[in-house]
Design goal:
The protein is of the alpha+beta class and 244 residues long. It has a four-stranded antiparallel β-sheet, with no helix packed on it. Strands 8-9-10-11 form a four-stranded antiparallel β-sheet, with no helix packed on it. The longest helix has 20 residues, at 71-90. Helix content is 26%, strand content 26%. The chain has two domains: 2-116, Rossmann fold (3-Layer(aba) Sandwich); 147-234, Thrombin, subunit H, CATH 2.40.10.500. It is elongated and about 70 Å long. Residues 88-122 are annotated as: Disordered.
Amino acid sequence: MADGVENSCAVVCFLTQAYQDSKNCRKEFTYAEELGKTIIPVYMESKWKPSSWLGVNLAGALYIKGSSLSTESLTTAIIERLRVSSSDHNTGNNTNNATISKNPITTNEISTQSQIKQEPKNKYQQSGITVAGGNGKGHELNQLSQPRGMFIDNDKSIFIADYENHRIVKWKLNSNIGEIIAGGNGKGKQNNQLNQPVDLIFDKETNSFIISDNGNGRVIRYFDQNPTKQQTLIPIIYCSGLAI
């Protein structure tokens, strides 16, 4: 905690009743003041006001009403405060924690600036296109049945955990049918079978697929060049997601 305060250019405090009651938070706040760090108070509870030691330290200080802002707007407002504080520091106006109360920007102005400075969000087409399946629920190669986890490789092929069909299928870009990569031989626990797979990832180092074979309570490895070769990595587990 001390290292974080010492190496910081400013300390952003997300204030709540729990923060005020915390001995560690009080120590951190006090230490930041002693080091002359810029403190940016953010009120995270709409009807709450600081009292006791915190109320004394923040009397007259500029604060951000975090409870009334979206996460994106709050982040922008904090960055704006940091920018202004840095500007004050560079012009010699930063005098310990007095920077907070002397800053001419009001909370409302910060909120307005945060809205103005937001980058326009990308607009997506409102109509999608089918990249896999789309031919009703079924087990044919042009169908899927409750698809779950998936990933896209460098060739833009989509690999899908076809849950109810107990298989992993690969759909190449602009293809009308899928290709079975693993399973597809009915529900079971033999080397060539899967049972309700829910997720998969590709391990580039071993050129293999790692599959969460949820119905069999295991995580297994299928080798890309030899799909009949299977390795159980975790024998007893029920997981819904994988990552390397």
